[in-house]
Amino acid sequence: MSAAARSAEPGGDRRRLKAAMVILAALAGFAAGLGAVGAIWEGWVTDRLLQVRAIALDPPVEADFPVAVVGLDQASLTSKRLETIPRVFMSQAFAKAGRALFEAGATAIGLDFVFAFSADAFSDPQTGEARLRGYDRPFLQFLYDNRGRVFVARTSSGVPHRSITAAGGTDGIRSTEIVTDSDGVVRRHRPTAPLGQSGAFVDALLDKAGATIDRPYMPLPSARLGSVTPYLSLVDVLDMMTTPEGRAGLETFARGRVVLFGSTLANEDEHLYLDRFLPVRDAVGAVAGPAGRPPLRGATAGVYILADLIGAPMSGRIAIDVPFAVVIGLTLAFAVAGALAGLNLPLPSLPVVGILLVAAGLGLALAGLAGGRFLPPAAVPVAGLGALVVAGIAQVAVLKRRERELVRLFGHYLAPDVIRRMAEQERLSDLGGETRHVVVAFIDIIGFTKMSEKLADREVVSVVNACFGAIGAAITRDEGYIDKYIGDAIMAVWNAPNDVAEPEQQAVGCALKILALIPDLRRRTGQADLDLRIALNAGPALVGDIGGEIRRSFTVMGTTVNTASRIEAIAKDAGVRLAFSGPVAAALPPETRMVPLWQGRLRGLSAETTVLTLDDPRVWIDGAARALEAIEAEDFEDAIGSPGRSAGRAS
Q: CA angle, 304 as apex, 302 and 307 as ends, to 5°?
């Protein structure tokens, strides 16, 4: 297998591994997203989105709300007109108010009371005399005269008295049961078509109002119902019907509207409704009776809820469920996005990405509400966030494991960003050994032997550490790899184990930066004579994890390394700080000015080698004038001596 094929194979393995992780993370997020649909906390999110819609989008409150409410409230029960009448005997009051509202133009009337008892059936407990016989006749007559326009409530636990059912007709008795979501909050209505034949109280009144709705819907109120629904207290209706001005007010209140009678007393027939977080706004379209409105509470009166379930589709203020295929598509798209982000983005950025995914998912749900469509608000964000978490865990557990292994092997020799790129390129699988084009450098401390004779051992170590620390930092910054320390020298490599673009130019540039460190190193070490010498060679070399069972290390070996070692000896004889071979020179930019130092066969090598340096005063060591003059005269042997004088260093 060729080196190129071996290099490409690990990248393909990594891509296949990442693709499998993306699929698994996306499927996990997709399942979590669909599983969140209908979750008990999803309703809370829905209600909060309605709150954001009401505050941010500020939808207008309807000026002509199609349903009005007449409430049996505390003001009615304590009024002089009604305070002496027990609630079970309120039927005559309802009959009077109902006739007045029909005369004022009401379309239909719904009575959100079960009327389980009839006053006609009560008798004196001592004498058995039916003293109230005929008391309910006005109410029964009202029901009979307005059959098809008046509807009385029944529930699963209570039905109207048989006399009420007989007067109103079986079609006039409808169920006011309302269905709650899993969290106990009322949010939607599921009409039964045809509406006129449905047993639901809401459907019957929708039919009388001329509405045509046959799909489940969610009302979209923009304020607390108790603050905007047209409302009059029962006692106010009874008072207003007695004066011309009052009757005119009743006409404004009732004309063209469905009117519901119901209790607005505290803690009676109250439910949690999706308006619970909405703002309180001024009432629009209601006559302000002397009794005013009952105070708002955390729960919403059932009669207000029925009014909203009827009024919302009549005014187009509803949200219809989006097709389930759309939910599946968006959920899958967010799951894939979360999986890709979790595997490819840096770990510290994932919390921010998670927040953005959740915000985007909720934004889609909010946009849906603004357009009259209900997208389950939990599915999309949970899918994206779930896939992101799973993919992030996979990145840490699997992909980052390779980076951690590379850090363990090369953390002291390569820059962190180089190690990260190696992990992304999956270079770790090539460490068993391969031939690569590399640039090898030997960096020597000049005069180290004399220096070590004059200094104490601790001072020698301090000088060497200072030099190696500064040189090593420069090498790693320029994408080089520190192969080994050899006494007073460093062997460095470019393009192994990491890939480096234009390694020759990187190596020469790094060499000049290292030479620029000499004044600072002299100052830090206190050694005025301290100097450096660098030799470079480029060519193929065997690179890999070499060694036995007891000890192994990553290294580079071959003729390219041996040649670089011998070039260092030529640089010493030439009196230059930097020398490099012809292959290095050939890869430098054309405008680079170079000076030839030597040409011939190095000891132990069959091919001719050309050694050059840069035409730069910085590369010449003080006192090298004779060598420079000889080089300018092209007298290589006079300047440097014969090739046999070059003492090679084995790698």
A: 110
* Residue 491: its H or E element: strand 489-494
Instruction: Provide DSSP, 186-213.
Output: E--B---SSGGG-SBHHHHHHHHTT---
- Count how many Cα atoms sit within 13 Å of the Cα of residue 284 in the half-sphere of its side chain: 12
Q: How far apart are CA 303 and CA 109, in angstroms?
A: 12
Tens-place pLDDT, residues 469-518: 999 999 999 999 888 889 889 999 999 888 899 999 999 999 999 999 99
Query: What pLDDT does residue 428 have?
Result: 46
Cα–Cα dist 101/104, whole Å: 5
> Shortest CA distance to 556 belongs to which of 444, 423, 441?
441
Q: How many residues does the chain have?
A: 651
Structure tokens at 557: 């070996």
27-65 confidence digits (pLDDT tens)? 999 999 999 998 999 999 999 999 999 888 776 666 678
Confidence of residue 643 (pLDDT cuts 50, 70, 90): very low
Q: Which token pair is 115?
A: 């009327």
Report the mean per-residue pLDDT for the chain.
86
Report yes or no: 189 and 314 within 8 Å, Cβ to Cβ.
Answer: no
CB atoms under 10 Å from CB of 80, counted, come to: 7
Q: Copy the structure tokens of residue 450.
A: 């004399």
Backbone φ, ψ for residue 270 (5° rounding) = -110, 150
Mean per-residue pLDDT, 221-225: 91
Query: Cβ of 562: how many Cβ atoms within 10 Å?
Result: 21
Q: Please, what's the b/e burial string for 8-22 (b: 16 or more CB within 10 A of its CB; e: otherwise)?
A: eebeeebeebbeebb
CA distance linking residue 253 with residue 289, whole number of Å: 11
Q: Residue 202 CB: number of other CB atoms within 10 A?
A: 28
8 A C-beta contact, residue 263 and residue 72: yes
Decide which of 579 and 497 is more confident.
579
3 state SS for 520-538: HHHHHHCCCCCEEEEEEEE
* C-alpha distances out from residue 35 to 354, 433, 497, 640, Å: 19, 49, 47, 81
C-alpha–C-alpha distance, residues 409 and 481, integer Å? 12
Place of tokens 């209706």: 237
Distance CA 178, CA 189 (A): 8
Contact 334, 384 (CB under 8 A): yes
CA distance 137 to 133: 9
d(CA 368, CA 592): 64
Neighbouring-strand partners of residue 252: none
Whether the CA torsion 179, 174, 91, 69 is positive or negative: it is: positive
Count of CB atoms situated within 10 Å of the CB of 573:
18
Alpha carbons 599 and 433: distance in angstroms, whole number? 32
Rounded Cα gap, residues 476 and 414, in angstroms: 5
Q: Please give the Cα distance from 197 to 181 (Å, whole number).
A: 25
- What does pTM read for this prediction? 0.66
Q: Is the pLDDT of residue 136 over 70?
A: yes
Q: Phi first, then psi: what are they for 176, rounded to 5°? A: -100, 15
Least Cα distance to 151 among 109, 192, 196 occurs for: 109
